[in-house]
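Narrative summary of target 7.
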Amino acid sequence: MENLSKLLDELTNNASFRKPLTADDDFSQGSDTLFSGFPGDLDQFHSLGRIKRTPKKQSDQEFEIELLSKIDILNDALFEHKVDIDIVKKAYVQIGESIQELSGMILDQHSDIYQRAYSKFQLLREIYSQLDVVVTGTKTRKLKESDIELTQAQIVILFHHMQKLGIVSKKVSNTLLATSIADITGLSSQKIRQALSSVDKDTENIDADFKTTDYHAVNRKIKRLQQNLEEDFSARF
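Modeled conformation, tokenized:
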């Protein structure tokens, strides 16, 4: 279980959020003396300045993909395979402490680390809620899909256009948006995340699950929403 412990340590380590991200790391460590390579210079070396290369900065999307990959591996190890309950409890405590630390880091929504820290906070919270059931034996009531009147495809269409209109921040990633939608609908965040990646009409990955009936259903709800607003407006003013 050494690999599992190592993975858990990597996932719960928030050290990268405690210092500002920089793209100016210096790769010039080591000797500054290089062979010039010109004829007649054999056995001779010239003191040349090493080229300082700027490392490629990991994008927020790449960060989330890497994070999701690690969480999937951890999920598989903890829930698909029967691991010792002590290991599960250790993961529960360690992830809980990491979430608590992240909760303090995401207080400032304008900080440079906010997007990534919040993404990690949401994803760790998902696995923590699953571990909570195993460790404490207490099940929190999960919303059922029957509690809502739109299908998954219809909800994805609705939130996609809300984001395009700026009702939902355009800076919110599909991962965070999917997690939030899952929290308030009871739908699977993973399936919503996949659908969000293919709902845009300009994407090359058009999902066949989006049908004309879905758009009509969303349109009817929006018209009903408009009607409710007009009725509320008339009653208030």
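The chain has two domains: 1-17+60-140, 143-237.
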